[in-house]
Amino acid sequence: MDLFKPMNLEEKKSTTPEGDIEKVKCLIIGSGPAGYTAAIYAARANLSPVLIEGLQPGGQLTTTTEIDNFPGYPDGITGVEMMADLKKQAERFGTDCRWGIVTDVDFSSYPHKVVVDGNKTIEAETVILGTGATAKYLGLESESKYAGSGVSACATCDGFFYRGKDVAVVGGGDTAAEEATYLAGLCNKVYLIVRKPYLRASKAMQDRVNRTKNIEVLYEHNTKEITGDGVVQGATLIKRLGEEDEQEVKINVDGFFLAIGHTPNSDFFKQYVTTDANGYVITEPDSTRTNVPGVFACGDLKDSVYRQAITSAGSGCMAAMDAEKFLAERE
Ligand code: NDP
User: Fold this and answer.
1) Are strands 96-98 and 50-52 parallel, antiparallel or unpaired?
2) Annotated catalytic, 245?
3) pTM for this structure?
4) Closest residue (by CA) to atom 16 of ligand 1?
């Protein structure tokens, strides 16, 4: 089925008094590597971009440790530093970076309307969506019960609180492997809870996990319950769930970290922009164009496969170039 069907937009004059609406050529939503790179390119193309940073300025990379695979940093760089540098670079060319959250959009007519913090409307000739993705949770009642009391989806943010203690990390991908090795450097012991009989993480990350003495990988284990008296004190796991030899296993841990993937942040514009079944924005092949003319998508929001800082930055560049071309063609 071809999900990509360009939408026809009607040009519509705003019904709100002129003074109340800010008009911009290029509005960028999101402040990860995709958003900031789009901003650098859009600013250099004289589109005077406004960038709305969102809830987590700097995006997911601000919660990661060392980034060793972004070209140009032979000694690695921390996520926080890299994002601060990207922001500085975007601002150097005139990007207006603003703290705020987009609460609503109206892409049904042109120009597009975006509402920030529930009260400020911006009318944009082009919108670049770079809102990234958010960590997934298992969906257990006990997860929300202990949120902030031992349950976390960010080892680099919260690992510090568990120095010298025992913790668990759920997941078998690169994030889980990275978080487990990071926590192993701080904690006494790390259980890595993996539902399959193998890790999905890259070979290099698997090797790191296997080389780390205080990580114990619990293959074929699922989490039934997180337990404790007010704070996390342990977890009940099921080994070989659904098999004849299924077995309940209890572990004692003070911290319980989720690293089971992410959900794209596309809910607030889904009504207009076509996404796949998992919420990832669908763009035209070899382009960042969405089904809505003048709306472009980049970064993890539209990429369920590569999801790297460098690929996000690359698609941010593409989005700015596509926006520039769109505007040039309208003139
Ligand atoms: P992935 O989707 O790659 O992995 C998610 C993991 O969580 C899988 O092992 C999956 O199990 C497991 N999982 C999912 N749902 C559940 C559940 N309900 N219960 C138990 N386990 C569950 O996500 P990541 O966040 O690890 O990685 C995302 C992308 O980012 C990848 O492309 C990765 O390579 C990249 N990345 C790269 C890094 C780097 O290069 N430094 C660092 C971190 C991420 P199963 O295998 O059974 O599906």
Assistant:
1) parallel
2) no
3) 0.76
4) 260
Q: Return the ligand 1 atom nearest residue 174 CA.
A: 26
pLDDT digit string (tens) for 179-232?
A: 999 999 999 999 999 999 999 999 999 999 999 999 999 999 999 999 999 999
CB atoms within 10 A of CB 195: 17
Distance 47 CA to ligand 1 centre (A): 37
Q: Does the CA dihedral 203-209-212-216 come out positive or negative?
A: negative
pLDDT value of residue 84: 95
Give CA separation, 232 vs 104, 217, 255, in Å.
37, 20, 6
pLDDT at 133 over 80: yes
- Give catalytic status of residue 26 as yes or no: no
Cα separations in angstroms, 180 against 66, 106, 299: 14, 42, 25
246-277 pLDDT, tens digit each: 999 999 999 999 999 889 999 999 999 999 99
Phi, psi for 274 (deg, rounded to 5) = -70, 130
Residues with a CB atom less than 6 Å from ligand 1: 69, 138, 170-176, 178, 195-196, 200, 260-262, 307
Mean pLDDT for the stretch of residues 39-64: 89
Nearest-angstrom CA–CA distance, 84 and 146: 32
- Pair 221, 194: CB distance under 8 Å: yes
Residues 272-304 as b/e (b if ≥16 CB within 10 A, e otherwise) read bbbbeeeebbbbeeeebbbbbbbbbbbbbbbbe
* 197 phi/psi in degrees, rounded to 5: -80, 10
> Cα separation of 81 and 131, whole Å?
20
- Contact call for residues 101 and 269 (beta carbons, < 8 A): no
In the reported structure, the alpha carbon of residue 172 is separated from the centroid of ligand 1 by a whole-number distance in angstroms of 6
Which residue carries 């492997």 as its tokens?
177
- Calpha distance 117→101 (Å, rounded): 5
H helices of 111-261, in order, are 141-145, 155-158, 174-184, 203-211
Question: Quick one: pLDDT at residue 128?
Answer: 98
Domains, the chain, with CATH or none: 22-134+263-329 (3.50.50.60), 137-258 (3.50.50.60)
